[in-house]
Amino acid sequence: MDLNHIMDEISSQLQHIYSKMEFTAGGVFLYLFAFLMLILPLIIFGIESLTGKVAAPTTASSHIPKPPPTKIQEIRIYPIKSCRGFKVQKTKLLKTGLDLDRNWMFADASTLKFLTIRQISDMTLIDTKITDDDSLEVSISTKPNIKISIPAHPSEIWLTLNTELVKDCEIWGQKVDGYLYSTDLTAPFSEFFGKEVRLVYKGPTPRPLKGNADPRVLGRIESTKFADLMPIQVSNQKSIEELNYRLKTSGEAPISIERFRPNIVVEGEEPWYEDVWKTVRLQPSDWTAENGKGDITMDVAARCARCQVPNVDPDTAVKNKKQPWNKLMEYRRVDEGITFKPCFGMLCVPREEGEVRVGDTFEITEVTGDHRYIPGM
């Protein structure tokens, strides 16, 4: 997330407040107060960026107990950004993210700017699956006659013959390269979107990580495909259970963790203990200290600050006007670096590549009290 992302979220929140306000002296005062509360963190971020202050003051972590190991409960892949994904039992974990995760995106045909569920909730009705012949099948749940199939791991030769490589695709204000599929292939989806769109496959040029994973913070250069910020998002099952308890206590319906679009869901020991993760290690069930077989370390770079995407029901594309956003705002504004948004889940950057499986051990190797959101630099 960069300043464009932050401004987009601030604009969305102000529009929501504006639509609800009454044009009285009190209403205008409340609107101005809300504006100041939302814009103040951005001003602080700007000052910190200009002065070179990109990290929060350190806090001693020696007093923070290290949580016990847990297990990987689910692995989820979302091949096309903002579209429906699927669960797998095992997959490759690459430095850029899970194999196939967010490798594609839909873009406006005129601007090549990415399209997102934030503005188009119906995108969650676009289904994806991998077939036995290693093809990516893309369909629309409400329109069974619309379906396309493309190679899940296209070769350079296939891409050269069937796509056009361009350098001016846009995601969160950043220009990236991408392979454009033909308009004939995506015509049915243009009809679904109500405007001409293009399907884009991430090009060969790395998209470097920024913010909390900027090389000045992370200590190395890493990249991702079309994920918003980081290659991997991890969520804790105990945290969604705790959130659902609060929702049900308030008379609201429980929600699935799919709404938060995580890559890895761990069983967890207690709610929200993920807030203190600093580094984690994924270990296969037959791992031993002697063989070190297949273990993967990930840096936990930041909390995942949330927009209102989780308000969208992935089965129906209906967006709830209040939940779970309102409930999360009550008690999950826990990051001093981005106080106008609630947090759910953690964003991670792998150090190694390898296979990851449901049932693997998920060990927290380091903890910290220093997590603080840093905008894209």
Any key phrases for this structure?
7 helices, 20 strands, globular, 30% strand, 377 residues, alpha+beta, four-stranded antiparallel sheet
How would you characterize the overall build of this protein?
- By secondary structure, this protein is an alpha+beta fold.
- The protein is built from seven helices and 20 strands.
- A seven-stranded mixed β-barrel has the order 1-15-14-18-17-16-20. Strands 5-11-10-9 form a four-stranded antiparallel sheet.
- A hairpin with a 2-residue loop joins strand 7 and strand 8.
- The chain is globular and about 60 Å long.
- The protein starts with a helix and ends in a 10-residue tail after the last strand.
The total count of strands amounts to 20
Envelope shape: globular
Structural class: alpha+beta
How can the largest sheet be summarized? Answer: 7 strands, mixed, barrel
Counting DSSP H or I runs of 4 or more residues, the number of helices is 7
Radius of gyration: 21 Å
The arrangement of helices and strands along the chain is HHEEEEEEEEHEEHEEHEEHEEEHEEE
Strand order of the largest sheet: 1-15-14-18-17-16-20
Content of β-strand: 25-35%
Mean pLDDT: 88
Poorly predicted ranges:
14-23, 41-59
Residue share in helix: 10-25%
Distance between the termini: 10 Å
Domain MOSC: 207-365
Transmembrane segments: 28-47
Keywords: Membrane, Transmembrane, Transmembrane helix
GO molecular function: catalytic activity; molybdenum ion binding; pyridoxal phosphate binding
